Fold:
Amino acid sequence: MPLPKAPPIGKLRNLAVIELWRDEPMAGEQSYPTYQPVGQAWCSIEPKIGEQIWSGGVAVLENVDGGRATHVLTMRYREDLTHEHHLVVNRMRYRIVRVQRDDARRYVRCDCELYGDSSMVGVPPIIPKALDDGG
Structure:
């Protein structure tokens, strides 16, 4: 089945920062996720069918395609996007679930899962001084 027609260039109004997931080693053999910015692109964002937004919170009522994707982000063609990338738009982080490339029309359709506010994702926990054994 061919991909739907690409949106007009005027609908690509959201500037997305493309970030690549990296595991940052910590003391011991632990690591925590960090995200390295590797580019940016203008995109359009469309919620998938079955999603409603109430007072800034997201509730997925029914996902008709059986996947985890909550939004579809469409941008000009990029061949470097994979499921290891995140897109940050207006401080909201979207994890790419699936990338569909349309070489003939030169655009990319990304099915994404909304992760939430980018300032809260991947931040290591803060240990209060009273509980910290290190002094």
Summary: The radius of gyration is 18 Å. The beta strands are 14-25, 31-47, 51-54, 57-60, 71-76, 85-89, 92-102, 107-117. The mean pLDDT is 76.
